[in-house]
């Protein structure tokens, strides 16, 4: 990886690390799926912490070669309507889990990044459960097609989430997708 870079990304996973730090996993436009340390992000007075929430689009500056560190972060979109609805949160977390499992780290794929943003914006604006399900179904079909998997699950797999579980060889921790 490059020594220092700036990019836009969506926070798809956070993991507490030691007493005051976090490991942030982002799907970025120009660097693909990356994980970086956010030093001090768990402290109450952290300037980075509010910008590194799950389901947030951020501008980031990262440094480091062997280990990467987030130097700066600023929120582009916080998707407040998603964060106010548990069903929308669950839906997004399911797709984030799928993306972190099936996307190769560090491989640039601006198409998946852009499609994820479209998905998040549509879920943000969705008024009904039917709209959310339709958006999720379209995004799931896109991911399958883009990653080279058959679009139609085999007949013995009932739901899209179980099809993704089959591809990942493990159960989704997040709730059912559709």
From TrEMBL:
Any single Gene Ontology cellular-component annotation:
bacterial nucleoid
Q: Which UniProt keywords apply?
A: DNA damage, DNA recombination, DNA repair
Q: Name one GO biological process term.
A: double-strand break repair
Domain of life per record: Bacteria
Pfam families the UniProt entry points to: RecO_N
Residues forming the DNA replication/recombination mediator RecO N-terminal domain are 4-79
Stored InterPro entries = DNA_rep/recomb_RecO_N, NA-bd_OB-fold, RecO
Q: Which PANTHER family does this chain map to?
A: DNA REPAIR PROTEIN RECO
Protein name as annotated: DNA repair protein RecO
Q: Which organism is it from?
A: Candidatus Collierbacteria bacterium RIFOXYD1_FULL_40_9
Taxonomic classification? Bacteria, Candidatus Collieribacteriota
């Amino acid at each position: 990886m490059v020594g220092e870079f700036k990019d836009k990304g969506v926070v798809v996973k956070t993991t507490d690390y030691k007493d005051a730090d976090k490991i942030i996993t982002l799907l970025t436009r120009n660097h693909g799926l990356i994980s970086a340390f956010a030093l001090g992000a768990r402290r109450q007075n952290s300037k980075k912490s509010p910008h590194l929430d799950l389901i947030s689009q951020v501008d980031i500056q990262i440094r480091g070669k062997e280990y990467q560190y987030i130097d700066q972060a600023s929120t582009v979109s916080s998707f407040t309507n998603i964060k106010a609805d548990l069903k929308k949160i669950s839906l997004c977390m399911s797709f984030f889990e799928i993306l972190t499992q099936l996307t190769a780290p560090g491989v640039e794929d601006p198409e998946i990044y852009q499609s994820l943003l479209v998905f998040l914006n549509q879920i943000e604006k969705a008024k009904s459960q039917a709209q959310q399900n339709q958006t999720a179904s379209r995004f799931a079909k896109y991911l399958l097609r883009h990653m080279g998997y058959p679009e139609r699950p085999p007949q013995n797999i009932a739901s899209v989430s179980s099809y993704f579980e089959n591809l990942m060889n493990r159960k989704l921790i997040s709730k059912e997708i559709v």
